[in-house]
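Q: My labmate handed me this sequence with no annotations at all. I'd like to see what the chain might look like in three dimensions before we decide whether it's worth expressing. Could you predict it?
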Amino acid sequence: MCTPFVRKEANRLNWLIKGQLIDIKASDSVVESIYESYFKRLWNNIERMEYGSIGFEAAYKAREAEVINAELEFVANRGYD
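A: Here is what I predict for the chain of 81 residues:
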């Protein structure tokens, strides 16, 4: 299982390379492979790290809110009764 740190870092590295977040439905193994691959690709690329991260935090916070809302909808529809 992928930790929240690895998931966020994989999304950050994907943002630096592709300018978008990883698909929300991506499995843990896909996220971990993206993390390892893009980490190697961006190693020592300081220039890209500076200007490429613009907008990532806002996009990731929106993704986190989307995930929480989806979980709440599932619980609200299913209920605990």
